[in-house]
Amino acid sequence: MTSQDFIQVILFFAILIGLTPILGNYMYKVFTGEKHLMLPVFGWLEKLTYKFSGIDQDEETNWKSYTFSLLMFNLIGFIFVFLIQLFQSWLPLNPANLPDVSWHSSFNTAVSFMTNTNWQGYAGETTLSYFVQMLGLTVQNFVSAATGIAVLLAVLRGLSRKTTDKLGSFWTDLTRSTLYVLLPLSILFSVVLVGQGVVQNYKTYETVQTLQGAPQVIPMGPAASQIAIKQLGTNGGGFFNANSAHPFENPTPFSNFLEMLALLLIPAALTFTYGKMVGSTRQGWTIFTAMLILLVIGLSISLYAEYSTNPIFGNLPLMEGKETRFGITNSVLWSTSTTAVSNGSVNAMHDSLSPLSGMVAMINLMLGEIIFGGVGSGLYGMVVFIIITVFIAGLMVGRTPEYLGKKIQKFEVQMAIIAVLAPNIVILLFAAWASVTAPGLSSLNNAGPHGLSEILYAFSSAAGNNGSAFAGLNANTVFYNLTLGIGMLIGRFGIIIPVMAIAGSMAKKKITPSSAGTFHTDNWLFIGLLIAVILIVGGLTHFPALALGPIAEHFLMNNGVTF
Amino acid sequence: MKTLFIALKIFLFFTVLTGIVYPLLVTGIAQLAFPAKANGSLIVKDNKIIGSELIGQQFDSMIYFTSRPSAVSYNPLPSGGSNYGLTNVKLKNLVTERKHQFIAFNQLDSLTLIPSEMLFASASGLDPHISPTAALLQVERIAKARNFSIGQKQKLLQSIKELAASPQFLILGEDRINVLVLNLSLNKLDGNISNIK
Fold first, then answer.
1. What are the distances in angstroms from CA A545 to CA A259, A460, A540?
2. pLDDT per residue as tens digits for the range B155-172
3. Do B26 and A200 touch (CB under 8 A)?
C-alpha cells in the first residue's frame, strides 16, 4: 500500500464521521415531527400521501397493529413485483423485447427486493425490462429501506417512552422516511452520478461497430436513478449484472468514492438519531464506535490479505475481478463496507478476492449485518445484541439487567435469542443441505474449499439480507431461487417480528432513574463487552464452517495448491 | 380490512412517486444538464457511433493497443467477471498463458514485468482502462506494425502522456489510460491508416 492508499481510506472515514451528526440530527427532526429543511419542499407531498391513502397521521398503534400494517404493505409489494416479472413481455417499456421471467426467479427477485436484500439471481441487462426495473425494483428500493427505518423508530419509541402501548404509526414513519430522507438524497445523488457518466435514459440498446469492426450492443436505461437509491437504501441490486463494477454504474474514482460513502451514510447517521431519540447522544456514539471498530478490524485484515504475496501468483497484484480505475484499495474498502452494511452492491468480484478478504466479507454477513448494517435494520439488529450484552453483564455482577432505565426481563431475552438464531439457522442448515445434494453442488464455479465458500456465502448473504455474492455460483436454479428466497424471508421477518415484540414490551415498562449501581452503557467498557459478545456469538456459530472454507483455502493457497 | 386498503393505496401512491415521477424527474434534469453522459458517453466518428468512451472494446490487432483480458470478451450482454477463486487451476493457467502471449505479441524480453491488469480479467468484463505502463510496453510493436517514423513514435509517446489520467483530484483511484480513446488518437496520428476498419 502506498501513502495515497492510506489517505483515501482516512479521508473516507473522516467524511463519514463528519456527516454522521449532520444527517443524524436532520433525521431526528424529521422523525419527531419538528420543523426541518425539507418541510417547505415536500410538506405538501406528505399531506397528499395521507389524504390519498386515507391515513390519520396522528393515529398511533400498538406493536401488533404496527407489525401487521408492515407485513400487509410488504406482502402487496411482493405480489406486485412477482406478477410484473411473470408478465413482463405484455407490459410496456421493454425496448429490448425481453421475455417473461421464470416463476422461481420472479419469486426470488420479488422476495429479494421486498426484504431489502437485493440478491440477484438474474442479469439485469438481459432479464428485466425498464418497466420492471422502475416500477418494481426502484420502488422496493425505497420502501424496503423505509420499512427498516420504521421498525427502528418503533424500537426507539419503545425504549424512550414509558408505560404506554403506543409505538407510533407505521404509515407516518414509512412516508416521512421516504419523502424527507431517501427521496431528496437520491435525487441529488443521481444527478451527481450522471455528471460522472452514469447513464439515465429510455433509449433502446445501442448497436455499434467497434474500432476493429466487430458489432457491440451497448445497454442503456434509467440507471442513475436506481443506483442512487440502491446505494443510499442499503439495497445493492445493480442495474447491470456487474453492479458497481460496470463502467455505466460507476464510471470514475469520484463516483466510486461517493457510492461508497452513500452506502454507509444513512446507517451511520442513524446511530446519532438513535442517541438523540433516547435522550443521550453518548449512547449513539457508543454504538457508532463499536461498529466502526469492527469495520476497521475487518478492513485491516482484508487489506493485509489482498496486498500479501502467495506462491501461486508470486508478487503480482491480485487484479482478477477488479477494475483498473479502482485498484486494490478501493475494491477492498468497498467489499468490506458493502458487507458490513447490508448493502451488497459490489465494485469487484468477491468470488475472486483472496481467501481471507472473502472471509472478512463473509463474517460481516454472518455477524447479522450489525456493523452499521442495513438502513434501520442494522441498528435494531444491534439493539438485540445490546440486550444480550446487558443480560450477560447483569448475570456477571448479579443485578437485574437494565438498558436505558428499562429492566430487561425473560421475555426480551427470549425474543433477542430468537432474532439471533433465525438467520444463523438459515445459514448453517441450508448451506449444509446444499453442500451434500446434487442441485446444490451442480451450481458451483470453483472446486475445493472455495466451492464450499461459494455456498456458505450465498446463504449468509440471503440470511443477512445483504445480497452480494460469490457470483460464480449459478443461483438462477429452482433449488437456489427457492432456498435463498425462503432464507431471505426468515432473515428479514425472523428478526423484525421478535424485535417489534421487544419494542412493545419495553414501551410498557417504567423508566428507573440511574443510580450508583446502574451498569452504564455509554463507555469504553461497554463497547468492549458488546464487541466481545458479537464476536463470541458469531465465532462460536460459524468458526467450524469457516475453517473448512476460506481458512482451509488460505493455507492451501500459501502452499501453492490449486484445484 | 381497513389496513389492507390503506396499504394498497399508499403502495400505489409510492409506486407512482418513486417508480415513475422520480426516475422521470432525474431523467429530465440529467438530459438537460449532461445530455452526452446521460446517453452513454457515445463516441461518434464520420456520423457513425463507434462505441462508448466508458465501455471497453476488444482489441487484438497488431496495430492497436490491446485491452485487458475479459471474461465476456467485451460483449456487454451481460457484463461480468470470471469469478475464479485464487486457488482455481484455470485461473493459474490463464495467467501463465496470457503472460507468454503478451510477451510474444509485443516481442518483449521474457523477464519483462507485465502489469497485472493485463494478466487478470476485470470485474465488469468491460474495463475501458489499462495502466500507462501497459500502454508503453506496446508502443514498439505498434510503431513497427504501422511503419511509424521516429517522429510519429515520439508523438505517440507524447499522446500516451497526455491521455493518461492521474488519480482524480490527486488522491482518488489509480493511474490509468482509456484504450479506445488512445487507439482513436493513434489512428489520427497515422494519416495513411485513419480510415482503417
1. 32, 12, 10
2. 999 999 999 998 888 889
3. yes
